[in-house]
Amino acid sequence: MKDKNIAVIGVGNMGGAMLRGMLMKSWAKPEKFTAADADRSKLETLERELKVRVTNDNRNAAKGADLIILAVKPQIIDQVIDEIKDDLTPRQILISVAAGVKAEHILSRIGKSVPIVRAMPNISALVGESATAMSPGKHATKEHLDAAREVLESIGMVVEVHESLMDAVTGLSGTGPMYVFLIVEGMSDAGVKVGLSRDVANALSVQTLLGAAKMMKDTGKHPASLKDLVTSPGGTAISALHSLEKSGLKAMLIDAVETATRRSRVLGRHPHNSGDEED
Predict the structure, then answer these.
(1) Which string of DSSP letters, residue by residue, matches 129-196?
(2) 176-258, CATH topology level
(3) Quick one: which H or E segment has residue 212?
(4) Whole-prediction pTM value?
(5) Is residue 1 scored above 80 in pLDDT?
(6) 6-169: which CATH architecture?
(7) Crossing angle, helix 249-269 and helix 236-247, to 10 degrees?
(8) Residue 143 half-sphere exposure, CB side, CA atoms within 13 Å?
(9) CA 219, CA 225: separation in Å to the nearest integer?
(10) Where along the chain do its domains lie?
């Protein structure tokens, strides 16, 4: 796919992060990418910094692309599909990262047998470390999935799941970086409270997160067993764990994932709803 033309329609936080992540690793040449967005200032920044082609005409971006990444908000996805559907062909691959919007809905809106792959990356695509799940639509063959995987693996790791689980993925890993940022912010604030400078507290908190994540990834051990390595009898860690359990940290995280999952489902059923309605 690195020799194919790729269009990213919608270069807000997620689309912009994916585009920057793909180019950061020199996975493909900038001239192979077209960025499309209604915001001219975003396009000017990307054109200047990344040297990609830019356009505020979604149809123009779709026409010349072998693969299209649809990274617009669920609330405007129907509008964008209606703009580009006459220019789509079954020879193209469409990757949609719109939270909650099913492949079947997109396909019915297009009215053609275009291969669609739903994907849910996260903002860590910006640094090439996204956790991404993908799911094939009706007309997506193994060849189409392999092509989509190649593109998505340029920004991190990829797993394939059944489409019925994509809302759960959105709640867990799609929203997940926010949970981590909040936890690290809390750790840093705590470090300042007990006397560390902000710079030192930030640096220690971030590296602690990186080290712990690498231990889990490299060892393949369950987090609970690694937790036991730290919680020695009568020590500081077990005392801290007691405090966290009393505060209900795990329960709060579970609630957060469930809430985000429900919100993704709402967006799928009512893509034009931008309010706070839940199930």
Answers:
(1) -EEEEEEE-TT--HHHHHHHHHHHHTTEEEEE--GGGHHHHIIIIISHHHHHHHHHHHHHHHHHHTT-
(2) ProC C-terminal domain-like fold (1.10.3730)
(3) helix 198-219
(4) 0.90
(5) no
(6) 3-Layer(aba) Sandwich (3.40)
(7) 40
(8) 5
(9) 11
(10) 6-169, 176-258
